[in-house]
Amino acid sequence: MPGSPAWDGWPLMVITHPMPACGRPVEEVVAECVDAGAPAIQFRDKTANGGALTSTAERLRAVTKSAGATLIVNDRLDVALAAGADGVHLGPGDLTVAAARDIVPPDFIIGYSTDDPQEARRAAAAGADYLGVGAVFGTRSKPGLADEAIGPDRVRLVREASRLPCLGIGGITTRNAPEVLETGAGIAVLSTVMSASDPAAVVREFLRLAGGGGGCRR
Questions:
Q1: Looking at the DSSP assignment, which residues form a beta bridge with residue 12?
Q2: Which residue from 17, 42, 143, 157 could staple onto 194, CB 3.0 to 4.6 Å apart?
Q3: Does the bond joining 135 to the residue before it have cis omega, within 30 degrees of 0?
Q4: 3-state SS, residue 116
Q5: CA distances from 23 to 17, 18, 200 (A)
Q6: Is residue 129 scored above 60 in pLDDT?
Q7: 8 Å CB contact between 68 and 41
Q8: φ, ψ for residue 34 (rounded to 5)?
Q9: Residue 58: is its pLDDT beyond 70?
Q10: Distances (CA, A) of 197 to 22, 146, 175, 193
Q11: Following CA atoms 214, 207, 115, 85 in sequence, which dihedral angle do they give, to the nearest 10 degrees?
């Protein structure tokens, strides 16, 4: 499990969108994903206020807890703690990993985004549990990154430098996922799952590509 020397990360993390393309509420889609075996969910919503984020996060926590899956909240440590989530995912513009580690419970998971091997080492030293590395193939879910693809080799370099579990992220589909998985990293996916009419089927296919297992579930 996270925090253990034997833990090598999740094979798949599903990142949410506040309005999944299938038209169903995000908590229903998350329930479908964890029932299909997704071991980790990252709740991401860049538009809602703190109260709305906490309310949704609490509902998602109930869903993931019943399935034994992990819930990570993107950016907002306050929301993660208020909702009883398992962890937070921070970026360069958020609270630092070291500052977060100083105030969270010992088993609280902290993820960090970087594609730079040296910064990855610093994040590991500061107490990060895993890294999100991208955009591997470019992404339209973050402005300005559609044409900035770092490629799977950079994921490998960051993983080797940090010695932390890593998740490749950005433009990952069932077609190119094996290129990332071959580096020893897992995959984090937003659009390919959230834009699907049957998100659970996509989750099952990603897990099949990753070897069929759900990895560490809390």
A1: 187
A2: 17
A3: yes
A4: coil
A5: 11, 10, 14
A6: yes
A7: no
A8: -70, -35
A9: yes
A10: 5, 23, 18, 9
A11: -40
- Position 21 scores a pLDDT of 96
Nearest to 121 by CA among 168, 161, 165: 161
pLDDT of 39 strictly over 70: yes
In order, the DSSP letters of 4-57 are STT----SEEEEP-SS-TTSS-HHHHHHHHHHTT--EEEE--SSS-HHHHHHHH
Place of tokens 């009883």: 84
pLDDT of residue 139: 72
pTM metric for this prediction = 0.93
Kindly tell me if the per-residue pLDDT of 1 is higher than 70. no
What is the per-residue pLDDT for 158?
98
- Residue ranges of domains in the chain, CATH in brackets: 12-209 (3.20.20.70)
Question: Residue 163 corresponds to which tokens in the numbers above?
Answer: 């010695």
Q: Is residue 87 within 8 Å of 70, Cβ to Cβ?
A: yes
**Residue keyed to tokens 């962890």:** 87
